[in-house]
Amino acid sequence: MNQNKIAISSLALDLKRVATLYFAGSEKSAQRFSQEALKRAAEIDRDKIPQYINEALNKIKVVLKQKAKLDKAEDALMYSTIFQNYVLKS
Fold first, then answer.
1. Rounded distance between C-alpha atoms, residue 77 and residue 62, angstroms
2. Which domain range does residue 13 map to?
3. How much is the pTM?
């Protein structure tokens, strides 16, 4: 597995943790994994991935800065699934 796929897979896992922790009511831990997710997103070489993944990466910062916790959790879970499916199918 190449470095991009590892970073995207790690990003998917971090986003899933964000969603799970917000749903569980652990806001402090969710915020910590949000920071980790942003770091992972910065590690990805955007020239080597499809356009739809690039667009999803661009939306991660917006998603993680939303005020409503439920919206943030739902969006993080959705993007987690998108990134996970990309890694598994490519």
1. 14
2. 3-80
3. 0.93
Mean pLDDT by 10 residues, the chain (90 residues): 91 97 95 95 94 95 89 95 95
Q: What's the CA gap between 39 and 60, in Å, rounded?
A: 11
User: What was the pLDDT predicted at 67?
Assistant: 87
d(CA 22, CA 37): 14
Rounded-to-integer distance, Cα 18 and Cα 51, Å: 24
Compute the distance between CA of residue 77 and CA of residue 49 in angstroms, rounded to an integer. 21
For residue 66, the model assigns a pLDDT of 87
Q: What is the DSSP letter of 46?
A: G
Q: Looking at the chain, list the stretches that DSSP marks H as alpha helix, in order from N- to C-terminal side.
A: 3-24, 27-43, 51-64, 69-89
Q: Is residue 86 part of a domain?
A: no
Helix axes 51-64, 27-43, angle to 10 degrees: 150
Q: How many domains is the chain built from?
A: 1
